Structures are given as C-alpha cells and as structure tokens.
Amino acid sequence: MTITSMYKKILVAVDVSSEAHQVMQQARGLAKCFDATLQLIHVIEPVALNSPYELTPDLPIEMQHVQVERAKAFLAKLAMDFDLPDIRQEVRLGSTKRNILETAETEKIDVIVMGTHGRHGIGLLLGSTATSVLHGTPCDVYTVRIK
Q: What is the pLDDT of residues 53-64, one digit of tens each?
C-alpha cells in the first residue's frame, strides 16, 4: 500500500459548535493529501426524561426533532463553509460511540477524524468520546486538539 492510498474514506465526527471548524479543517487537509472522500456525522445523545437523579432537566420530546433539524442545518453550513456541498452528511440518535463505530464499520471507513479536549481530573477518569471511540474502532483515529 502506498502512502497516497492509505486513507480513501474519512469519517469526520463533529459536534454542533464552532470547534467543528477546527476538526473539519484538519479532515479536509487529510483528504487532500490522500485524495480521499469525506463523510460528516453528528450524533445526538438522548436526554434522560424524568430522571430520578435530577442530573438533567426534563425536555419535551419535540426537542429531539428540533435538535435533529438544527444539526442537519449545521452540517450543511459546515460543508458549504469548506466548499464541499456534495459531502455525505448524517445525523444519528443514540450513543455517540456506538453510532460512530457502526458507521465506520458499515461504510468501511479508513480513518475517523474527531476533536478532543485536554481533560484533567474527573474528566480524565470518566473518559471522553474520543477515547471511547479509539478503544473500539476498526480503523485509525485522528484526533484534533481543540484550542
């Protein structure tokens, strides 16, 4: 395998924040280096309703639909910001780790690009999405340190 054929399919996992631009910039650079295709994914984790622990506020079920529509609009704008109007974009519901890993496997992704935050203390003990994806992935993971 030559270096230019190393990565042909890149999955870009983003949240819906300005930090997604940093991740997308790195992913687009990789895609250019390897002449690879990009695919965007955002996963919406379900909000626990009527939680006895009161860790999360109750949200109306309609909010899920609103979140999906906002995420789709965000991904479309992100694609346009990087002049990639034809990039495949997907919004999924459920476990972020599971959905990213399932997509990587079913789409035969060569590398997942995602952001990571420097975590310390309790955040480090609990882990992060990037760490959980890294430990279960069928492919390489390229993490972008969010500034």
A: 555 555 566 778
